[in-house]
């Protein structure tokens, strides 16, 4: 189940709720004051990963690919361009 973040207009607090995707989110109430004037907030996405980090690895160059000509292929065209 995903976590949803809300802002309560009644008590000005932010709170997080673990809710099923099938729940009617318009019926959510504030966990602080039980008010019903809550607005969903945009939250960041997080993912759990395992293994080593690729953050410090340099980008792949054409010489490292199995077929160096892969980067030289023509770009696909849209149907409207044909």
UniProtKB/TrEMBL annotation:
Domain Putative regulatory protein FmdB zinc ribbon per the UniProt entry, residue ranges: 1-43
Pfam families: Zn_ribbon_8
SMART domains (alphabetical): CxxC_CXXC_SSSS (SM00834)
Ranges where the record places region Disordered: 59-82
Start-end of Low complexity biased regions: 65-76
The protein's name in its UniProt record: Zinc ribbon domain-containing protein
Classification lineage: Bacteria, Pseudomonadati, Nitrospinota/Tectimicrobiota group, Nitrospinota, Nitrospinia
């Amino acid at each position: 189940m995903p976590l949803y973040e809300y802002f309560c207009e009644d008590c000005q607090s932010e709170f997080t709720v673990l809710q099923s995707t099938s729940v009617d989110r318009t019926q959510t109430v504030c966990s602080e004051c039980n008010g019903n004037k809550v607005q969903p907030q945009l939250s960041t996405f997080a993912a759990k990963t395992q293994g080593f980090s690729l953050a410090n690895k340099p980008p792949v160059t054409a010489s490292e690919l199995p077929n160096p000509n892969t980067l030289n292929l023509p770009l696909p065209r849209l149907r409207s361009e044909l």
